[in-house]
Amino acid sequence: MPYSEGVLRADVAAKVERHIASCARCAAELDMIRSVTCVLSNADMPVSEPANDLWAKVSARIADEPVRPTLSPKLGIAAGVAAAVLVGIVGTRLLTPVVPIQPTGVKTVSRVGTLTALQRAQKPVSKLQVRPHPPASKSSPVSEQRYFARSGGASSWYLKAKPGRPHRPVEMASAALKDAEAYRAAIPGRVPVASRPVVESCRAIEGAASAPPASTGDAVPIGGELRVGLGMDSAERAGSAAIAPAAAGAAVPVETETLASSSPGVGRALYGEARDAGYYSNDTTRAASTVSVVDELNETEGIRTAAIFSY
Amino acid sequence: MWEEADADLVAKAQIGDVGAFGELVRRYSRTVYGVVSRMADNADDIDDIAQEVFVQAYRSIGSFRGDAEFSTWLYRIAINTTIKLMKKIRSRQATSIDDPAGGLAETLVSLETEQPDRVVERKARNEALRKAVHELPEKHRTVVVLHYFENLGCEEIAKVLDCSVGTVWSRLHYACKKLQGILSCEI
C-alpha cells in the first residue's frame, strides 16, 4: 500500500520495485490495489449539506449544559498528583492495623526456675540452638522448653528460665551431686532422694568422664556420659555400677542393651535412643527430640536423668 | 492563522464562551457532515448524528489538551459518535441498506453537468460503491472514508483512530482487497 501511495523512501521504493519486477504475485497485487484506489479516488460519494438550523439545535441542547471550568493541563496534573498522594496517605493510615506489641518468650516452669536457681553454668552460652519441647505429660501440665547448646566445647542442657533472664547451662549431674535432694524435692511427683550408693557411683562416673577415651578397636567409650540415677532401682544401680568400672579406664564397647536389659524401659530409651538420636553427634535436632522421649519416660519411671557430654 | 484562530476559539469555549464554540461549529459543520454522510446508512439520521457530534464535542471540550489539531480531535468524536448511534438506530429500526434508492441517492450533490445517460450511469456506479463501502467492517470503512474521501494522510488517520500507521495501512489493504471483490464488475 505505501508503495502504491508513493510514500516510501526512495531506497525502499527501489527495493520494492525490483521485487515486483521479479514476483508475478506481488505485481498482480499491486495492480489490484491501484485499480481500487483509482475507483475510490474518482468516486463521488453522496454528501449531505449541513442543516440550516444546525447551530440552533446544538445551542439549544448545550444551553442546559453546566459551564465546566477547565484547569490548565499543568494545574490539572498537579491537582491530580496531590489528590492521589493525599488519598494514599489517608488510605495507608486507615488500612494499617495497629498491632499491639506482644511479649515474646516461652512458657516457664516453676521447676525450671527452681532448677536454674540451683545450678548455674560457669560459661556463657556461645551458641544456642533452640528446639521447642513438646507439651509435658498430664502429670506435669506446665510445658518446658529445653534446648541443647554447645559452649566452648562442652555440651550441656540448658533449661530456660523466665523471659529476659540469661540462659545458663545446667549441669544436671553436678547439680544432682551437689544438691540432689533439693532438686528432687522441687519436682513434684518424683521419687524420694537418691540413695548414697547411687550418688557415690555417680561421682565415680563423673571422675572417669574426664579420662581420655580409649583408642582400642571397637570400643567406643562413652566419654563423659554420666547417668545420674535418682531413685534408681536395684537393677539400674547394678547397671550403673557396671558402667563405673568400665569408665574408669577399660575400654569396653558401649552396649545399650546392657542398660536396657537391666532397665528396659529406661535404658533403651535413655541411651539407646540417645546414641542413635545423635547425643554423640552434633545433631541437636535429634537430641532435642530424644530428650522429649527421655523426659516422658523419666516422668513415668520417676527417674531424672541428664547427661553431660564432652567432645 | 487558521490554527491560531481555532486554538483561541477552543480556549474561549473551554471557559464557557458558547459563541466561540458556535464559530467552531460553523467552520467544521461540512467536515462533520461529510464523515457522517459517508458512514451513516440512512440520510434521515445524518442531521441527528451531526447534532450529537457537536454536543459531545462541547461536553468534552474541556479535555482537549491541544496536543493535536482540533480537526483531528473532532474527527475522532465524529467517527465514534456515528458508529455508536448507528448501532443504536439499527437496533431500533430496520436498516435502509436494503433500499439504497431511498437513502443517500436522493441527496446526491453533483456539481458537474453531464448527459443524462452518463448521469444515470454515474449515479448507479456511486450507489454500488457506496453500498460496497457500507458492507465493509466498521474499522475498515472508517479508514477508507477518512483516506479516500476526507483526504487524510495515514499519519493523521492513525492519530484520529489512536492506532499505528502500520495498522492503518493494513486496514486499507484489506479494504481494497474486499472492495475489489465487490466491485469487480466496475473495475
Can you characterise this structure?
The complex is a heterodimer of chains A (311) and B (187). Chain A is α+β, with helices and mostly antiparallel strands and 311 residues long. Chain A contains twelve helices and five strands. Chain A has helices spanning 2-5, 10-22, 24-42, 54-63, 73-95, 110-118, 172-186, 196-209, 234-247, 256-262, 264-277, 284-301; strands at residues 127-130, 146-151, 154-159, 169-170, 309-310. In chain A, strands 1, 2, 3, 4 and 5 form a five-stranded antiparallel β-sheet that branches. The longest helix of chain A is centred in the N-terminal third of the chain and has 23 residues, at 73-95. The two termini of chain A are 87 Å apart. Chain B is 70% helix and 0% strand. Chain B has eight helices and no strands. The longest helix of chain B has 23 residues, at 70-92. Chain B is globular, with a radius of gyration of 18 Å.
Q: Compute the average pLDDT of chain A.
A: 58
Quick one: biggest sheet of chain A? Answer: 5 strands, antiparallel
- What's the helical proportion of residues of chain B? 55-70%
Order of helices and strands of chain B: HHHHHHHH
Cα end-to-end separation of chain B: 42 Å
Q: Could you list the spans of chain B in which at least 5 consecutive residues all have pLDDT below 50?
A: 96-112
Tell me, briefly, the overall form of chain A.
flat
- How much of the sequence lies in strands of chain A comes to 5-15%
Oligomeric category? heterodimer
Structural class by secondary-structure content of chain A? alpha+beta
| CA(first)-CA(last) distance of chain A | 87 Å
Mean residue pLDDT of chain B: 83
